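User: Fold this; tokens only.

Assistant: Input:
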Amino acid sequence: MALHQVHLHHHHHLQEQPGRSVHGPVSVTGQVLSWVADKVFLWSPVELLKLRAQLQTATRGSAGYLNPAGLAAQVLRQDGVAGLYRGFTLTVIRDVPSYAMYFWLYHDIAAALSPGIHPEEAPPATQVVAGGMAGVIAWLPIYPLDTLKTRLQAVTAADGRGKTWVHFAKELYAEAGARAFFRGVGPTLVRAFMMDGASFLGYTTTLRMLGGSGAGGSTASGNAASGSGNDSRE
């Protein structure tokens, strides 16, 4: 969630630039590069450790249980630093197109729900619904890649030696056909709707509480200040 707020802040900053649009190639490129930096330095290893923690059969306090630090040490011991980034290529392939269209979708949906109102100034219900729908639509087409990434990250480098993502894709398909790639999609989309909807609303609400406003409000304030200056000179 915290990393999500970083992307929202970058998005808001671009919206405040005169002549800049979330739909433009520079804006999309900036958002994607911001995401890649997060993935390279933090999020990919976190996803791997979270998965390994969920796969543990030992419970907290019992023999063999490993906390996050213990899991990280185990991965480093077995596979080295590269082990923390196992599945990173699939993560990039999964998320780059998703993040590239995420804000675009949000703005278009918010504009359709509340015409004539800047998306960051839209009513709370619009922000929640638009953010949630954008998250769901962005997630759905790349979900099979997430399933494949999870299968790849679940095994150590030694156990998966010589096996490419194509091998794991064939393995999944052999289990249940195309349906195997959509296991757990329902709860994931519900989570995406709730998290993305809450993220947009929480971010814009925080801006207002801190004395700022959405991009539209910032522009309006700037225009008002400019107009006031012209009046005083007259």
